[in-house]
Write a structure and sequence with these properties.
- By secondary structure, this protein is α/β, with parallel strands linked by helices.
- It has 15 helices and 25 strands.
- It has helices at 6-15, 30-46, 64-74, 88-98, 111-120, 133-136, 172-184, 204-217, 229-239, 248-255, 280-290, 363-369, 408-416, 452-460, 495-498; strands at 19-23, 26-29, 54-58, 78-81, 102-106, 123-127, 152-158, 166-171, 194-197, 220-223, 243-246, 270-273, 293-299, 306-309, 323-324, 328-333, 346-352, 358-359, 375-383, 389-394, 399-401, 404-406, 421-431, 435-444, 471-474.
- Strands 2-1-10-9-11-12-13-14-15 form a nine-stranded mixed β-sheet, sandwiched between helices. The chain has a four-stranded parallel β-sheet with strand order 4-3-5-6, with helices on both faces.
- A hairpin with a 2-residue loop joins strand 1 (19-23) and strand 2 (26-29).
- Helix 1 packs parallel to helix 8 and helix 7 crosses helix 8 (204-217).
- The chain starts with 5 loop residues before the first helix and ends with a helix.
Length: 499
């Protein structure tokens, strides 16, 4: 069994009449899920999609996401998932770089995908939130195309602080093993579980630990397209949710919901947090308020994503990312790739069945990231005597805003397009609910004028809404290193912004 979609076929054969997907009143059992995905696969074939092709997806957490995702895999193609908040020029880059054959988008928000597809010269298919078959259906085989373990199942775009985004090529074997060892077995999911999919499915954590783990275990995945603390608690009560998965801001949102005590959340047995570091005080307060435990882990797009976790039947250490999951090894290394002594800070390096095949079409970048079979994460950590890892800093200067990754270079590039901007540095500043907020220091060209509000609006038009800087301030010049490179870490944040 190489094709990841075989999990859906197997589960449908065993638990066909059990609920698979729910979004409010819309419910699909596993038989109908399988049938709908097979229809999408046939529809894609009718549009010329061949095994090995790439298909873009611009869908939020609606029922159509799992159906189109598994339908694409059944057709033998690789999925290129994208955040529905992306603007046309961002979608266009992903489509062009991946060589996608077509893109599927939610009908109510399809404008950016349609515009991008036209620019690239491929088709865009707009589908409804529950039944993609109306626009994308066909009839044909209910089997999955044979694939090799090393074939790409998903190309997930991620970027460092320099250069354009890179597509992490995750194979069928990567995602299959991580759905098991980082997903269903980690939380001991069964067909009796109801897993709440609040983590975005276009993000690898939600995709693996929410969708793929649910399908593997035969659990029901109940979806919330747009997070709201009160609505989340209502769904937990209504659907008797047993496993809740979210980023720390979601836990805080539920915790701070007025009259939270009126919701019956006694069905919850386990919560899983990822995406960014969980503040220990939020974890303690949530567990006390809702009577369940939170397990926190660590991973990256390039590691499918789960690499380590505070595991269910081991000591839990709040503030750590736990220990490596089965089939995964982790080390802490210095800049030369040598192991650092226990208790010292080093860069996390990962090896195992979860590590990506490489960056799509970028062999040099792949060789740099995996120089010796160990993927260099760019994250700095310590390991204690029990083998638990604790993140201390990011070597890369990515900003994590409410669980979403924001890459400084991308925001700076948008600022540099403004005719008055000479220099720009994007940095993260602390935020009580989001973890970090996006901020930017800007130096203007001599003889030009622009106020912070104008610059903010300029970026807002060019990037997804969660990315644009909420704080912009003007400076005479930015700090630079000996080579003239702008030093983001040396940027002075005004006191009123840093508060």
């Amino acid at each position: 069994m190489a094709n990841l979609a075989q999990h859906l076929l197997d589960t449908a054969a065993q638990h066909g009449d059990r609920p698979a997907l729910r979004m409010d009143e819309a419910v699909l059992d596993y038989d109908r899920f399988h049938e709908a995905a097979a229809g999408v696969a046939a529809g894609l074939r009718d549009r010329g999609v061949q095994p090995g092709d790439r298909v873009g997806m611009v869908l939020p957490n609606v029922v159509s996401f799992p159906v189109v995702f598994y339908g694409t895999l059944m057709a033998g193609a690789a999925v290129v998932p994208m955040n529905p908040l992306l603007k046309a020029r961002e979608v266009e880059y992903y489509l062009r770089d991946s060589g996608a054959r077509l893109v599927v988008a939610l009908d109510s928000i399809a404008d950016a995908a349609t515009e991008a597809a036209a620019a690239v010269g491929v088709d865009a298919v707009a589908v409804g939130p529950v039944d993609p078959g109306e626009a994308l259906g066909g009839s044909g085989s209910r089997d999955a195309e044979p694939r090799d373990d090393r074939d790409a199942a998903v190309i997930l775009y991620t970027s460092g602080t320099t250069g354009p985004p890179k597509g992490a090529e995750l194979t069928h074997a990567n995602l299959r093993s991580n759905a098991r060892d980082g997903g269903s077995e980690l939380v001991e999911a069964t067909p009796d579980d109801v897993i709440m999919g609040c983590l975005p499915l276009f993000h690898v954590f939600g995709l693996t630990c929410g969708l793929n783990a649910s399908v593997l275990a035969g659990s029901c995945l109940t979806l919330l397209p747009r997070f709201d603390g009160a609505k989340a608690l209502e769904i937990v009560q209504r659907d008797r949710v047993t496993i809740f998965e979210g980023v720390p801001t979601m836990f805080a949102g539920m915790l701070h919901t007025p009259d939270r005590d009126r919701y019956d959340v006694s069905s919850l047995r386990l919560c899983v947090s990822g995406g960014s570091a969980m503040p220990v005080e939020v974890m303690r307060a949530f567990e006390e308020a809702f009577g369940c435990i939170i397990l926190e882990g660590y991973g990256l797009s390039e590691t499918s994503p789960v690499a380590s976790f505070n595991q269910l039947h081991a000591e839990r250490k709040p503030g750590t990312i736990g220990t490596p999951i089965p089939g995964v090894e982790m080390r802490l290394v210095d800049d030369e790739g040598r192991d650092v002594p226990e208790g010292e800070v080093g860069e996390i390096a990962i090896r195992g069945q979860n590590v990506m095949k490489g960056y799509w079409g970028k062999p040099e970048e792949t060789a740099k990231a995996i120089p010796d079979g160990w993927f260099r994460t760019g994250d700095l950590a310590r390991r204690d005597a029990d083998g638990y890892y604790a993140i201390v800093d990011r070597k890369k200067e990515m900003i994590i805003r409410g669980g979403y990754n924001v890459y400084p270079r991308e925001i700076e590039e948008a600022l540099y397009e403004h005719p008055a901007v000479a220099e720009a540095a994007c940095v993260g500043v602390p935020h009580p609910d989001l973890g970090e907020e996006v901020a930017a220091a800007v130096a203007l060209k001599p003889g030009t004028q622009a106020d912070p509000g104008e610059l903010q609006a300029w970026v807002k038009e060019r990037v997804a809404a969660y990315k644009y800087p909420r704080h912009v301030w003007l400076v005479d010049s930015l700090p630079k290193g000996p080579t003239g490179k702008i030093l983001r870490r040396a940027v002075e944040v005004p006191a009123e912004v840093a508060r």
